[in-house]
Amino acid sequence: MINKASIDFDDTLDRLDVQEFARYLVGKGWDVYIVTCRPDKYIGKYIGQERPNNDYVYEVAKWCGIKEENIIFLGGGKDKIEYLSGERFIFHIDDSPDELMRIRESDDDCYPISVDYYDWKEHLKEKFKI
Predict the structure, then answer these.
(1) Pick from 41, 25, 18, 42: which is nearest to 95 by CA?
(2) Cβ atoms within 10 Å of 16's Cβ, excluding its own
(3) The pTM is what?
(4) Strands (E), 66-114
(5) Could you report the per-residue pLDDT of 23-35, keeping only the tens digit for each?
Protein backbone atom coordinates (compact mmCIF):
# COMPACT_ATOMS: atom_id res chain seq x y z
CA MET A 1 0.00 0.00 0.00
CA ILE A 2 1.28 3.46 -0.92
CA ASN A 3 1.48 6.04 1.87
CA LYS A 4 -0.66 9.12 1.28
CA ALA A 5 -0.05 12.63 2.62
CA SER A 6 -2.14 15.76 2.27
CA ILE A 7 -0.81 19.31 2.38
CA ASP A 8 -2.68 22.62 2.41
CA PHE A 9 -1.46 25.22 -0.08
CA ASP A 10 -1.78 28.83 1.11
CA ASP A 11 0.62 29.60 3.98
CA THR A 12 1.73 25.95 3.90
CA LEU A 13 2.91 24.45 0.59
CA ASP A 14 3.69 27.92 -0.71
CA ARG A 15 6.59 27.87 1.80
CA LEU A 16 9.91 26.57 0.49
CA ASP A 17 10.57 24.31 3.52
CA VAL A 18 7.23 22.56 2.95
CA GLN A 19 7.90 22.26 -0.79
CA GLU A 20 11.23 20.61 -0.04
CA PHE A 21 9.50 18.20 2.36
CA ALA A 22 6.86 17.38 -0.27
CA ARG A 23 9.65 16.62 -2.79
CA TYR A 24 11.32 14.44 -0.15
CA LEU A 25 8.07 12.48 0.38
CA VAL A 26 7.53 12.00 -3.36
CA GLY A 27 11.14 10.80 -3.64
CA LYS A 28 10.40 8.24 -0.91
CA GLY A 29 7.43 6.93 -2.91
CA TRP A 30 4.64 8.74 -1.07
CA ASP A 31 1.46 9.80 -2.88
CA VAL A 32 1.25 13.50 -1.99
CA TYR A 33 -1.91 15.58 -2.43
CA ILE A 34 -2.63 19.28 -2.26
CA VAL A 35 -5.96 19.83 -0.52
CA THR A 36 -6.85 23.52 -0.59
CA CYS A 37 -9.93 25.62 0.09
CA ARG A 38 -9.16 27.66 -3.02
CA PRO A 39 -11.78 27.48 -5.75
CA ASP A 40 -10.60 25.74 -8.92
CA LYS A 41 -11.47 28.82 -11.01
CA TYR A 42 -9.69 31.25 -8.69
CA ILE A 43 -8.63 34.53 -10.27
CA GLY A 44 -7.44 37.68 -8.46
CA LYS A 45 -7.99 38.06 -4.75
CA TYR A 46 -8.28 35.32 -2.14
CA ILE A 47 -9.91 36.09 1.20
CA GLY A 48 -9.22 39.77 0.75
CA GLN A 49 -5.50 39.36 0.07
CA GLU A 50 -3.51 39.49 -3.13
CA ARG A 51 -2.52 35.93 -4.03
CA PRO A 52 -1.05 34.34 -7.13
CA ASN A 53 -3.66 32.63 -9.29
CA ASN A 54 -3.92 28.86 -9.45
CA ASP A 55 -1.17 28.66 -12.07
CA TYR A 56 1.17 29.03 -9.11
CA VAL A 57 -0.42 26.01 -7.40
CA TYR A 58 0.26 23.91 -10.52
CA GLU A 59 3.84 25.21 -10.81
CA VAL A 60 4.60 24.35 -7.18
CA ALA A 61 2.98 20.93 -7.57
CA LYS A 62 5.11 20.20 -10.64
CA TRP A 63 8.31 21.28 -8.87
CA CYS A 64 7.43 19.06 -5.90
CA GLY A 65 6.57 16.07 -8.11
CA ILE A 66 2.90 16.12 -7.10
CA LYS A 67 0.58 14.77 -9.80
CA GLU A 68 -1.92 17.23 -11.24
CA GLU A 69 -4.79 14.86 -10.45
CA ASN A 70 -3.72 15.04 -6.79
CA ILE A 71 -4.60 18.73 -6.56
CA ILE A 72 -7.97 19.06 -4.84
CA PHE A 73 -9.73 22.45 -4.87
CA LEU A 74 -12.50 22.47 -2.26
CA GLY A 75 -13.63 26.01 -3.05
CA GLY A 76 -14.26 26.87 0.58
CA GLY A 77 -17.52 24.94 0.45
CA LYS A 78 -16.52 22.17 2.82
CA ASP A 79 -14.05 21.26 5.52
CA LYS A 80 -10.92 19.39 4.49
CA ILE A 81 -11.84 16.41 6.67
CA GLU A 82 -14.87 15.89 4.43
CA TYR A 83 -12.47 15.14 1.59
CA LEU A 84 -9.82 13.35 3.68
CA SER A 85 -12.21 11.09 5.58
CA GLY A 86 -12.03 7.47 4.50
CA GLU A 87 -9.30 8.14 1.92
CA ARG A 88 -6.47 6.59 4.01
CA PHE A 89 -4.30 9.68 4.38
CA ILE A 90 -1.53 9.19 6.92
CA PHE A 91 -1.26 12.88 7.79
CA HIS A 92 -2.37 16.38 6.76
CA ILE A 93 -0.18 19.48 7.12
CA ASP A 94 -1.99 22.82 7.48
CA ASP A 95 -1.72 26.28 9.02
CA SER A 96 -5.41 26.50 10.01
CA PRO A 97 -6.09 25.57 13.66
CA ASP A 98 -9.79 25.13 12.79
CA GLU A 99 -9.10 22.64 9.97
CA LEU A 100 -6.60 20.74 12.12
CA MET A 101 -9.04 20.55 15.04
CA ARG A 102 -11.82 19.20 12.81
CA ILE A 103 -9.46 16.50 11.56
CA ARG A 104 -8.34 15.69 15.11
CA GLU A 105 -11.95 15.48 16.34
CA SER A 106 -13.06 13.24 13.48
CA ASP A 107 -13.12 9.45 13.52
CA ASP A 108 -10.60 9.34 10.66
CA ASP A 109 -7.04 8.11 11.24
CA CYS A 110 -5.48 11.06 9.36
CA TYR A 111 -2.93 12.71 11.66
CA PRO A 112 -3.20 16.53 11.66
CA ILE A 113 -0.07 18.63 12.14
CA SER A 114 0.43 22.36 12.16
CA VAL A 115 3.05 23.79 9.83
CA ASP A 116 3.50 26.44 12.52
CA TYR A 117 4.70 23.83 15.04
CA TYR A 118 8.43 24.50 15.31
CA ASP A 119 9.44 20.86 14.85
CA TRP A 120 6.72 19.67 12.45
CA LYS A 121 9.03 18.07 9.87
CA GLU A 122 11.19 16.15 12.33
CA HIS A 123 8.08 15.11 14.25
CA LEU A 124 6.52 13.58 11.13
CA LYS A 125 9.74 11.87 10.08
CA GLU A 126 10.10 10.28 13.50
CA LYS A 127 6.44 9.39 14.06
CA PHE A 128 5.97 7.77 10.63
CA LYS A 129 9.55 6.49 10.10
CA ILE A 130 9.94 8.52 6.90
Answers:
(1) 18
(2) 9
(3) 0.90
(4) 71-73, 91-94, 111-114
(5) 999 999 999 999 9
